[in-house]
Amino acid sequence: MFSERFYLLFALLVLGAGACRQDATPTAKSPGFLREPKAETTGTTDALPLPQTGEGNFENLVADFESKDRVIWQKPDMVIALLGDLHGKTVADIGAGSGYFTFRLVPKAEKVIGIDIDPRFITFMDSVKVRLPQPYQNRFESRLAKYDDPMLQPGEADAVVIVNTYGYIENRVQYLKTLHTGMTNNGRLLIIDFKKNNLPIGPPAEFKVAQNQVERELRSAGFTPVSIDNESLDYQYIVLAEKKAAIDTPKH
Ligand SMILES: C[S@@+](CC[C@H](N)C(=O)[O-])C[C@H]1O[C@@H](n2cnc3c(N)ncnc32)[C@H](O)[C@@H]1O
Known about the structure:
By secondary structure, this protein is of the alpha/beta class. It has helices at residues 4-21, 58-65, 70-74, 76-81, 102-105, 119-129, 134-137, 172-181, 211-220, and strands at 90-94, 111-116, 140-144, 157-163, 183-194, 224-229, 236-242. Helices cover 30% and strands 19% of the residues.
């Protein structure tokens, strides 16, 4: 058995090496964390409304997502613990990016699906995967999704995390309804994103969604918010919701 401490050290080394080896092909646009002016858009791509830091510069995005200071404000271990016991469970990380959460989840769950719409991150996560010890490789799957569909099979995910991605999803209620179908009954959905106030990091205001709006959208899509935490993370709120099992009404 591999200890989690060994795995984390290994994963961080792999991520660092992977970031240096990537071929920076400026294709799709992806958001970063740092606040920078909007880049000009050409209007010629069918990509995202995601003008943001590091746009087109893949190495900058990966360096941003994997920055050493992040562990201080992101508290990934505390966040992952909110999902409860993941033994035997399938977890989907929507908007996985470089796999910051994905690869921390791998030692804890039976299967982890790293979902993204940007093929560069899919390639990056796959390059991390092949360097993991075999038992962990078997637990990981990358999945290229669509802007409007996380591409989960019905009832596939027992738990889902959406970190620093929610504000980039369009037609969110419809998206959440599709996601709802892809989850098991009593499945947990964790949404973490930047607070609306002025922060030293995070996306521009137009890509921030207020925490109470997240709650409203979750309810509209059929999820039940079970806890809201504005305190544990300095820059972000944590919304935990559940897909409640439908209650069968007895027939008379
Ligand atoms: C700011 S990054 C966050 C990455 C990762 N969750 C993290 O916290 O390090 C946002 C990610 O969401 C992806 N993304 C944007 N819109 C998406 C959508 N509709 N479905 C899935 N992924 C999306 C982007 O390609 C990018 O990798």
